[in-house]
Amino acid sequence: MSVLSAEQNSVLTDGFSDPKRLAGHVDVVARHASFVLEGAEVVGQSKALLIGPVFSPALAGFWLSVAIVTSVVTAIVVGVVSNSAATGLGVGSGLLALLTAVQALVVWLVRQF
């Protein structure tokens, strides 16, 4: 099944991250009645309401930039404090590897939904 077109609904998007925001919008289901199926099997094309997290390349790039800057700064500080470039490089590389693994895990989890 593929998505041919998509549009963002601000009420539902806000409600996904904070369900309390939907409290004032009791007519959400009524406004989206075309998406409600009552035991019918869908064959062919139909409208669907997809609720889930969205992967943001810009946010992933921002996270990678923060990870690199944090690792470089940490490497410099550790290298100066320990008076050993090898120690600074090791700590900075280790931190970058850890932060990259965290980013990969987040991307993997988001794409699972």
Report on this model:
The chain is mostly helical and 113 residues long. 58% of the residues lie in helices and 0% in strands. Helix 3 (57-82) runs antiparallel to helix 4. The two termini are 14 Å apart. 4% of the residues are buried.
Topology:
Blueprint: H1 10-17, H2 28-31, H3 57-82, H4 85-112
Proportion of strand residues: under 5%
Please state the CA-atom Rg, rounded to the nearest Å.
22 Å
Low-confidence spans = none
Biggest sheet statistics: none
What is the rounded distance between the termini?
14 Å
- Shape summary: elongated
Q: Which structural class should the secondary elements be placed in?
A: mainly alpha
| Percentage of residues in helical conformation | 55-70%
Please provide the count of β strands.
0
H and E string? HHHH
What would the average pLDDT be, to the nearest integer? 78
Question: Which terms would index this structure?
Answer:
58% helix; elongated; 113 residues; single chain; mainly alpha
Concise summary:
The protein has helices at 10-17, 28-31, 57-82, 85-112. The protein has 113 residues and is an all-alpha fold.
